[in-house]
Amino acid sequence: MLCGANGPTPQQRPVVIGICVELTFAIARNNIEVLRANTLASPCLNHPCVAKTLIQCDFASAALAYNDALDKSVTDLVVFAHQDLFFPKNWIDRVIDSIAVLNTTDPSWGILGCFGVSAAGAHYGRVYSAGLGTIGTSIDQPTCIQTLDEIVLIMRKSSGLSFDNALPGFHFYGADICMQASERGLRSYAIPAFCVHNTQMPLVLPPEFYQCYRQFKRKWRHRLPVHTSCITVTRFDRELWLRRLRETYIAHIAKRRPEVTRLADPGSILKMGIDG
Q1: Cα 52 from Cα 10, distance rounded (Å)
Q2: What are phi and psi of 272, to 5 degrees?
Q3: Which of 24, 151, 266, 268 is least buried, going by the fewest C-beta atoms within 10 A?
Q4: Local confidence pLDDT in tens for the 276 residues of the chain
Q5: Radius of gyration (Cα) for the chain, nearest Å?
């Protein structure tokens, strides 16, 4: 399914340091109701910079969905977002502000996102996550990181970067593309652009997560350890085994409910004055 909305002409769009800013949203979806209640309900999609929104359905992996969207994109800037994200009205303005800074300090930046992890394991950027509350460290300018969380990734089509079609499923593709950028000498950044991740967070991860972990580890074994937002990939898999032990306890001993439910109204977080 392809969903497009005609935006304003380039002359009506904001300009950042001599560059006409327009962008395409690409969203991989498997649940239309979740998409409508969250990302498509986000006020920022009415921003004059949004040239088109691509809804990517029925793909076997995030990499396949997003590379297809990259090919279809009518703009250089592309925002890859989860279907359960809710973006404030000023979200795109914050992205534009960060790009304006980077156009001066690092115009050949690699990937941008709202929440990332440094090579030292520090978490930067602020995001509200259902079940966890507001997470991350507040920042007021783009902050260099090792990898970004997949909830939202921003890239330039002209960078030549693309997602790894060999990476299965819907995990680690954000960390992977940040590592690809790094291999090319391009730095990636967490930016101050708060959003709400209205996730139905599982307490027990699916087998696919561990399959992706193993493949990611094999690919980047020469760069270990790699810090991601949910786990640190290391030579001896210490965090992996601790997570599996915890999941075994949850599933077979504590017998807790397997997930945290989504907010009925993700915009309520913003109404409470929480904005990162």
Answers
A1: 13
A2: -80, -5
A3: 268
A4: 334 343 444 444 444 544 448 999 999 999 999 999 999 999 999 999 999 999 999 999 999 999 999 999 999 999 999 999 999 999 999 999 999 999 999 999 999 999 999 999 999 999 999 888 999 999 999 999 999 999 999 999 999 999 999 999 999 999 999 999 999 999 999 999 999 999 876 677 788 999 999 999 999 999 999 999 999 999 999 999 998 888 887 766 656 555 567 888 999 988 776 776
A5: 18
Inter-residue contact 194 to 276 (CB < 8 Å): yes
Is residue 206 reached through a cis peptide bond, with omega within 30 degrees of 0 on the bond before it?
no
> DSSP class of residue 191?
-
Q: Residue 219, exposed/middle/buried by CB under 10 A (0-12, 13-18, 19+)?
A: middle
Query: Could you tell me the domains of the chain?
Result: 10-271 (3.90.550.10)
Helix (H) or strand (E) holding 246: helix 238-249
User: Six-digit token pair at 39?
Assistant: 């990302």
Contact predicate 20/96, CB 8 Å: no
127 alpha carbon, distance to own chain's centre: 11
Locate 186 and state its tokens.
């391009």
How far is residue 68 from each of residues 10, 165, 255, measured CA to CA in Å? 24, 10, 40
Note the residue count of the chain.
276
Containing 33, the helix (H) or strand (E) segment is helix 32-37
